[in-house]
Design goal:
The structure is a single chain. By secondary structure, this protein is mainly α. The chain is about 35% helix and about 5% strand. A two-stranded antiparallel ribbon has the order 1-2. Helix 3 crosses helix 7 and helix 9 packs across helix 13 (about 280-295). The longest helix has 22 residues, at about 1-25. The chain is globular and about 60 Å long.
Length: about 350
């Protein structure tokens, strides 16, 4: 009897394996090198290799990655009750209109850098912008492997102005804008701001271009959620605050957005903000889910092709735990979440140092 049960179990297992194999059967791509679960994804391999080598400098987590990722957001958020097509590439097709919007200051540079790639590949602008962003982020240690869905049609009109939140907007305004754009919750808004861990500002304060938002702009980590909660300190001879949308940062060479500062201290978002401090797994999971929602705004995901397998796996490296910058401790935290204790963290050794700007490529 036992032998018969074993044979039956093996038969079921083999049947399940065959069924699973049928579900995941891959097709050979015309390039003779790659395979895909859907033939529609095959063309993306050449695009991926092209932008990795020639836009992202062989796979670096540098300024082109930061700017390409910023562009994904500025294009996708252009939707709401007042119109707009969401993640449709309108910001590139109607560049003259949308780059004139105050919130889109500076995105014309990455749009122009991406134009040659878009011209030589068979892909719509909306798909290219989101694909380039997801591929770029895969170069950053600590980042999640983002999803990518293919099938955005060409845009038919520019997005309306005032759809992109700005650094000096109030928390009320920012939360309302995200809710109107795609029903984002306050927790999802905070998760999306995890993108600031690999961000730098060129235009918030044009006197200090390439200024990062945290001390590790080349790593997708939780350090930004810690450093935004530190009390600001003005250093002699170092301009770290005063422009619209900018407040002082406790680190030399670092910029803090007014909106980040306020969201980290608002009762609706403070505890969620704090929850990401030193929680790399939560950041990866929550950011990936929120960005998947953002990247398909204006489209029915059920009518798109899942080509996430073409996105490279981010570097498999151990991410350093969040630490207080040298000279900072828990006493320097301006904690706004009353219900949960602030995590206990180590402090970096040595005297305070300056955060280097992100160099232009």
């Amino acid at each position: 009897m036992a032998f018969k049960q074993l044979v039956a179990a093996l038969t079921v297992a083999l049947s399940l394996g065959v069924a699973q194999g049928a579900i995941t059967r891959r097709v050979a791509c015309p390039d003779g090198v790659n395979t895909a679960t859907n033939a529609a994804c095959c063309s993306l391999f050449a695009i991926r290799d092209d932008i990795q080598q020639n836009l992202f400098d062989g796979g670096e987590c540098g300024e082109e990655v930061h700017e390409s990722f910023r562009l994904t957001f500025h294009d996708a958020i252009g939707i709401g009750s007042n119109g707009g097509g969401g993640a449709d590439g309108s910001i590139a097709v109607f560049e003259d209109i949308e780059t004139a919007f105050h919130a889109n200051n500076g995105v014309d540079e990455i749009i122009d850098e991406q134009k040659p790639f878009l011209a030589r590949h068979n892909i719509t602008p909306g798909d290219f912008i989101q694909f380039a962003g997801a591929v770029g982020v895969s170069n950053c240690p600590g980042a999640p492997r983002l999803d990518f869905f293919l099938g955005r049609p060409n845009p038919v009109a520019p997005a309306p102005d005032k759809t992109v939140p700005e650094p000096f907007d109030t928390v009320d305004s920012i939360l309302a804008r995200f809710a109107d754009a795609g029903g984002f919750s306050p927790a999802e808004v905070v998760a999306l701001l995890g993108s600031h861990t690999i961000a730098a500002a060129d235009h918030v304060d044009p006197t200090i271009p390439g200024t990062p938002f945290d001390s590790t702009p080349e790593v997708f980590d939780t350090q930004v959620f810690l450093e935004v909660q530190l009390r600001g300190t003005l250093f002699p001879g170092i301009r770290t605050g005063g422009n619209q949308g900018e407040v002082e940062s406790p680190l030399r060479g670092e910029i803090r957005l007014q909106s980040d500062h306020d969201l980290a201290r608002d009762s609706r978002t403070a505890c969620e903000w704090q929850s990401f401090v030193n929680n790399q797994v939560k950041l990866q999971t929550a950011f990936k889910a929120a960005f998947k929602k953002l990247a398909v705004l204006g489209h029915d995901i059920n009518n798109m092709v899942d080509c996430s397998e073409v996105i490279p796996e981010p570097p498999n490296v151990k991410i350093k735990a969040a630490t207080f910058p040298a000279g900072q401790t828990n006493a320097d935290v301006e904690q706004a979440c009353a219900s949960t204790p602030f995590p206990t963290l180590a402090t970096d050794p040595g005297p305070a140092t300056s955060v280097a700007p992100v160099p232009p490529s």
